[in-house]
Every structure is written in C-alpha cells, then in structure tokens.
Amino acid sequence: MRMIVLLPGYNILPWSQDFNEKLSSISQFLKQKYEMDTYLVFIDDGSTKLGTTLDKHISNLKKIQHCKIITARHHLNRGQGAALMTALKIGRDILNGDYFVTLDSDGQHNPLNVISMLDTLKKQNLNIIFGNRFGAAKQYINQIPTFRKTILRLAVNFEKYITGLNLSDAHNGFRLFDRKAANILEIQQDRMAHATEIKKLIYKHGLAYGEATVEIIYDKQSLQNGQKNGNAINIIQELIREKVF
Amino acid sequence: MTFLLLPIIYLTIIGYIISIDWAYLYPEHKTAFYIELFLVLSVVPFVVYLYFHYPLLYAHGGRKIDLTVFLWLSRELIHIRVRFNKQRREITQLTRDLAIRDARYIQDFDAIKI
Q1: A111 three-state secondary structure
Q2: Are residues A78 and B92, on separate chains, in Cβ contact within 8 Å?
Q3: Distance separating alpha carbons of residues B26 and B31, to the nearest angstrom
Q4: Which end of chain B, N or C, is more open, meaning fewer C-beta atoms within 10 Å of its C-beta?
Q5: Which tens digits make up the pLDDT trace of A21-61?
C-alpha cells in the first residue's frame, strides 16, 4: 500500500527540521504498522522570491527519511488548487497511491496527526477525513488570532450552505482521503477556492466523510507564509465567477 | 418614417449580434449566453417604445447611443470573461503537463525523471 503526501508550496522558505523529523517518523510508523510506503510529492508553484525556489528546498527535502520524495515545478504560478491537482495527478495516476494526505507547506500542520486520521478513516469506513482545528487542545486554539477565528466561524456557516457538508472547520488544508475519493477529485479551482470545491465534489458524489482533530501551529513564520485574512473575499469572488462563467 | 425605421435598424443589428453569439457563445458557455440575452431583452422595450418610456429614459440620461454602448460593453465583458476563463484553464493544463513531464525523485534530482 502507498500513502502519498501532497505538498504544494509557493514562495515558501525551507521548513524547519522539526517538520522534517515528524514527516520521517510518520513514514517509519506507517511502514511498521500498516506495511505502507510513504511518498511525498512536493510541487513548487512557480516560486520567485529569493531562497524559496525548488533548488533551495532540495537539500532540506533530502533530510526526510523513510520516505520517497518526488518534486515538480510549475513554471508559472497557478495557485494552490492547481498545484494540489498536479500533486494529486502524480500521486494518483503515476504512483498509484492508496491513501492521500494534503498538507500546507507553511509548516502549520503537525504530520503526526495523520496517525489518528488514518485510524478514524479505517474504523469508520470513511472516504475522506477533514482536519478540524477547533477540536484541538486549548493551547492550540488560543494560538489562533482572534480575527482569523471570527472569519473562520463565518466561513464554516457559509460553506455549510454552499457545499452541503456539515463540518466544524473551514479551509483547513489538512485532509486524508482514500483512492475512491481521489478518483473523483478533479479540481478546477486554481486558487484558494479549491477547498470549497473539494467539499462540493464529496457531497455531489455522496462519499462518506468525517472530521478529526488536528493541531495547527500559528507561529511568526507560519503566519508569514500562510493565508492572509483578506483571501476570504477572493475565495467568494472565485466561487461566484466559477459558478456564473 | 424615421420614427419606425430607426428602432427596426437597431433591433436588426441586435438580432444579428445575438444570432452570432447563439452560434458561437452558446455551445461554449450557455450561462454566459443567457446573461447576454437577458441584458439585451431587458433593454429592447426601450428601443421599441422609446416615446412611451421617454420619462424613464430621460431620468437615466438615456439616449439610443447610450443603449448601444451599454449593449456593446456588456457583451464584450461577458466575452472577455469567458475567454479569460478558457485561457486560464488551458495555461494551467499546460503548466501541469510540463511539471508532470519534468517531475523526478529527489534522490535522482540531477539525473533521472520518473
């Protein structure tokens, strides 16, 4: 069996050693417990900033152990949704993965959460499991900036209405899904609205979904690398444009 | 005579544009065509019954030339958006195909493609 970790990145500085170690240990754990080979697909989405291009990531990526790493580069910046779809195509169509994890490359996610997500997915016979940052311990919830928390709460209700999925978190990039879900995911939204599109596709095809608690770290670097609050407006615009045109 | 002739000319031009868009835009993007049709049909009464709607048109500073510009701009905006979306999808597909073609294992970063 193969677990594919999908990691799109744009203008992202090489992540910390801690993140590498967590990816290494999760790969080792999956091999030992489930006889599962881990592949990491990293897509550089046309980074242009100094120190963020693919060649700067290579030495860092080589430090990840027990995991085969595939890299690819978008020559033009096409957005996170497009980069994720490229990673998924490599993982699904070339590597023939059985399970897929999507992570944000800003280092906010804790890869160790994959263990509990995979357990829940298997036990409850789900096709996809979405990360929920609001179920985490207080120390993690308190890290979320207040304004971000307010926007996320509003987005949760908006997405319930738009997608039909009843989830407690919105636009959480931490997801785990099986082959069946991977086969129906043909993401058309190039930019951030892809998160909403994924939910719509899951609802449309009637796949089984669930939630699992994930820890998200909001430190200075991850906030600098991560989504900005103003993106909420862009996401709504993208959804309307896609719907009409 | 001018009273009847001008609306007929305007409507003929509008009908001609719509028929072209029906042939080219409709198969490509139905929603965009319907939006355009709606925009056009909503202003056609102002052309036909100009004098009946004169107070309303006057209130909006409307003349036939404004109507023509309005129709033309609306149509162009719809066409630009549809064309933009189509090209965006094509560029993404091309970028993706190139990325997948050049993808490689990190262990073989300097040598072998997958």
Answers
A1: helix
A2: yes
A3: 8
A4: N
A5: 999 999 999 999 999 999 999 999 999 988 888 888 888 88
Residue at token pair 């000319």: B9
Cβ of residue A63 closer than 8 Å to a chain B Cβ: no
Inter-chain touch A86–B102, beta carbons under 8 Å:
no
d(Cα A168, Cα A135) in Å, to the nearest integer?
Answer: 9
pTM check: above 0.90: no
Amino acid present at B33:
F
* Interchain proximity A75–B99, CB inside 8 Å: yes
ipTM: 0.86
How many angstroms separate the CA atoms of A34 and A118, rounded?
10
Sign of the alpha-carbon dihedral angle for B5, B10, B13, B16: negative
Distance of CA B107 to the CA centre of its chain: 50
pLDDT digits (tens, 9 = 90+) for B48-74: 666 666 666 666 555 666 667 777 788
Tell me the sheet residues that pair with A131.
A212
CA A139 to chain centre: 22
Q: Is B77 left (phi over 0), alpha (psi -120 to 50) or beta?
A: alpha
At B25, the amino acid letter reads L
